[in-house]
């Protein structure tokens, strides 16, 4: 049986979770200095002393990904109600002087930094992505036949279950199994709840080392994949050829190139940020400490452990081989 695992950590991501921080940003707008700032835009509602503008509602619709043709009265009512509730709660929080607590002040500062940093990253990536040429797209397609002209869909049978305390012991006890029935019997013996079903793996989105391990499989090989939230044993039942060509191939390749740009930009930004920093006291020593090999800045990809040998171990993976790639539709 093969043991396939993948480091699910991204190299370094900087993204603004805007919806989750909306309340915090609203709190940030409640300082005495900003109370004197004139409301900009058409006022459409009032919550006590605070006004709600058309621009605020439009922004709420934008954050909720509601296109103009879907902005029905029901949708507008729901989102305007959300703004009203948020402003009401902010007023209650300020009345309770929560905005003066040190922890809340730091949270507001962090929220502002995250949103501005995320906005910069998104704008910078969008600018770079517009420079992707047709020649680059064609070259990417030619260099990755497994994702395009030689693309395949693996139809699998799988058994999935929640992570257990001693996953290493479970992996070791099942490493010589040749059937999912054996796996099922073992999980029943250990009183582990599981589900059994079917699924599909797409070579267009599979991490390269997992794809290679599956490609080199024997007829009775069983794969084991795990993550922090799930684990799965699976066996390949059949393989379908599904070449990816034409406009869809072009679009998929462009998305992949954009992902590569994002990864490279994240790594470069991370390095530049650390290089620009100066530390006080013992933090210089702490920041100079080498990063443990088990948590690399950039994931090396999955490793496969087989009966005939062992490849370098990697960290955890997903129930299905996870990636940030959006699978082709066909």
H-E order: EHHEEHHHHEHHEHEEHHEE
Shape assignment: extended
What percent of residues adopt helix (DSSP H or I)? 40-55%
Report the end-to-end length measured between terminal Cα atoms: 31 Å
Largest sheet: 7 strands, mixed
Backbone structural class: alpha+beta
Strand segment count: 9
Report low-confidence residues grouped into runs of 5 or more.
5-37, 294-322
Provide the descriptors you would attach to this structure in a database record.
single chain; 330 residues; alpha+beta; two-stranded antiparallel sheet; 11 helices; 16% strand
Plain-language structure description:
By secondary structure, this protein is an alpha+beta fold. The protein has a domain at 19-124. Helices cover 44% and strands 16% of the residues. The protein contains eleven helices and nine strands. The strands form two sheets. Strands 5-4-7-6-1-8-9 form a seven-stranded mixed sheet. A two-stranded antiparallel sheet has the order 2-3. The longest helix has 31 residues, at 246-276. The two termini are 31 Å apart. The model is unreliable at 5-37 and 294-322 (pLDDT under 50).
List the helices and strands and how they pair.
Elements: E1 2-5, H1 22-28, H2 32-35, E2 43-47, E3 50-53, H3 54-63, H4 73-95, H5 102-129, H6 134-143, E4 152-161, H7 167-174, H8 180-189, E5 195-202, H9 208-215, E6 223-226, E7 231-241, H10 246-276, H11 283-288, E8 303-306, E9 309-310
Parallel strand pairs: 1-6
Antiparallel strand pairs: 1-8, 2-3, 4-5, 4-7, 6-7, 8-9
């Amino acid at each position: 049986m093969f043991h396939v695992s993948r480091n699910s950590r991204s190299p370094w991501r900087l993204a603004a979770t805007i919806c989750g921080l909306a309340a915090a940003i609203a709190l940030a707008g409640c300082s005495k200095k900003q109370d004197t700032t004139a409301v900009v835009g058409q006022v459409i509602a009032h919550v006590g002393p605070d006004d709600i503008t058309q621009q605020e509602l439009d922004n709420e619709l934008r954050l909720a990904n509601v296109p103009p043709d879907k902005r029905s009265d029901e949708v507008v009512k729901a989102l305007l109600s959300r703004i009203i509730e948020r402003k009401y709660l902010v007023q209650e929080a300020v009345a309770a002087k929560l905005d003066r607590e040190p922890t809340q002040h730091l949270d507001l500062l962090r929220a502002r930094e995250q949103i501005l940093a995320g906005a910069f990253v998104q704008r910078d990536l969008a600018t770079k992505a517009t420079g992707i040429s047709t020649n680059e797209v064609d070259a990417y397609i030619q260099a990755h036949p497994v994702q395009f002209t030689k693309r395949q869909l693996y139809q699998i049978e799988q058994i999935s279950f929640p992570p257990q305390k001693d996953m290493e012991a479970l992996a070791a006890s099942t490493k010589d199994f040749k059937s999912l029935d054996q796996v099922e019997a073992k999980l029943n013996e250990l009183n582990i709840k599981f589900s059994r079903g079917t699924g599909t793996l797409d070579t267009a989105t599979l991490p390269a080392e997992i794809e290679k391990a599956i490609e080199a499989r024997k007829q009775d090989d069983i794969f084991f994949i795990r993550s922090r939230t799930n684990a799965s044993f699976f066996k390949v039942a059949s393989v379908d050829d599904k070449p990816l060509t034409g406009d869809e191939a072009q679009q998929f390749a462009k998305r992949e190139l954009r992902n590569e740009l994002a990864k490279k930009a994240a790594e470069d930004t991370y390095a530049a940020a650390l290089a620009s920093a100066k530390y006080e006291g013992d933090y210089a020593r702490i920041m100079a400490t080498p990063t443990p090999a088990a948590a690399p800045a950039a994931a090396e990809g999955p490793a496969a452990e087989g009966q005939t040998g062992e490849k370098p171990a990697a960290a955890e993976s997903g129930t299905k081989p996870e990636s940030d790639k959006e699978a082709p539709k066909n």
